[in-house]
Design goal:
mainly alpha; 53% helix; flat; binds zinc ion
Length: 129
């Protein structure tokens, strides 16, 4: 599969240009200036992530790999990657590490989510083929 060109990126770049213009008109250090400054930082982060995502998909082409996206509402962080038990308490983003109440497995939040996304992706690909 050919990775899609990040054309939608220009939407964020336009917004960034607009915000930078708005920022230039605010008094430096004022609350409104800080608000816009934060928004600009968030936008930079978003653009960085879009580019990173695009690059990963490209790389997949070079190495003849399959890029497959899992449903964004897939509860990857809430599921124990060992036994599959769902733990809704983990909707709280401040919980970085947890122990499964069902099987006792210890998890690091992002690592557990990555394992779940990989498992889900492989399951979906197996069904598709
Ligand atoms: Zn478990």
């Amino acid at each position: 599969m050919q990775a899609e060109n990040p054309r939608h990126l220009s939407k964020y770049e336009d917004r960034l240009a607009k915000l930078q213009k708005v920022l230039a008109r605010k008094e430096e250090g004022s609350n409104n200036w800080k608000k816009i400054k934060t928004e600009i930082a968030k936008l930079h982060e978003k653009i960085k992530n879009v580019l990173k995502d695009f690059l990963h998909k490209h790389k997949a082409d070079w190495y003849n790999r399959v890029f497959h996206k899992v449903d964004r509402f897939f509860a990857s962080t809430q599921k124990c990657s060992e036994c599959g038990t769902k733990n809704p308490r983990l909707k709280d983003l401040s919980i970085r590490e947890w122990t499964c109440g069902e099987c006792g497995a210890k998890h690091e939040r992002d690592e557990n989510a990555a394992i779940n996304v990989l498992k889900q992706g492989l399951k979906e690909l197996a069904l598709a083929n």
